[in-house]
Write the structure tokens for this entry.
Amino acid sequence: MHCSACVVLIESELTDVPEVTKAKSSLANHTVEVTGDFGDKEPEHIARDLSEVLKPHGYTLSLEKQNHSVKWSDFRLAFPIALGFIALFIILQKLGIVNLVTASKVDYGTAFVIGLIASVSTCIAVVGGLVLSMSANFAKENDKVRPQILFHAGRLVSFFILGGLIGALGSTFQLGSTGTFILSFIVALVLLILGINLLDVFPWAKKLQPIMPSFIGKRVHGLKNMNHTLTPLLVGVATFFLPCGFTQSMQIYTLAMGSFLTGALIMFTFALGTLPVLALLSFSSLGIHKKAQSGVFFKTAGLVVIFFGFFNLINALVAAGIIPPLFSF
């Protein structure tokens, strides 16, 4: 498991099994405690059956704790791919197409790229699970397209409106330069922690990741079982509150904007970045979320996210006058 979204997804999927009465997962220990009535089944049999439920999401269960191992060979591909990606955006910034690094703010282009990364990271796994489960429910009634359109529309509109409200809320606090620095510093640290976790090299780093209360994620995930006409729209709106570290880092940043429109556009652009992959996942039978479960991909994404976190940290320190500018781009 990589983040709190994994915890929510695992617990929600297991509690949907008729024999299971309770499932409690731990990100820190990579364990899940399952309580239920399984008759005379042996523990090995139970673990095998429940693994079938989780396998579509890339998880398996075993009775013995698995030792954590790092596939260092993945970095042979991850490093050059990440460096190429970073070089491309620096070039785009030089050309004025994407203002990647500024002295005081995350640009819309940066928010879009972070959205792209989030859409194929484990943090979005719970959203992908929601989309697929919801699609299955409505597909039984031959209603395949409308729910998807409502879901994505609800997601984009909610990120715009709720992002704007967070931005407007920031204006009531009169954050000033000190408050802005603190929030920018927090965003940079969150991104660094997310990136380190995606590398899957330091298991202890998962304990540092900020999380939203788990009951919120469980409530949102439970909406997939509703079969009302407007359920997809409601689920799309509710994804704003899912425990995704990338979303939370953008939400913290919009608080420093002090503007409804700027906050709305930052969150909308972020959601727009997640749209391509989520749309492909929902409108096709391609198991994108399964193909994304590769060490090379996550390590590449982790290196790019660390890049964003590192430069945003430097930007915050430069904007506060703590250090001089280190780069000319």
Notes: The chain has two domains: 4-57, 72-319. Residues 100-104, 285-293 have pLDDT under 50 and may be disordered. The radius of gyration is 20 Å. The chain is about 60% helix and 5% strand.
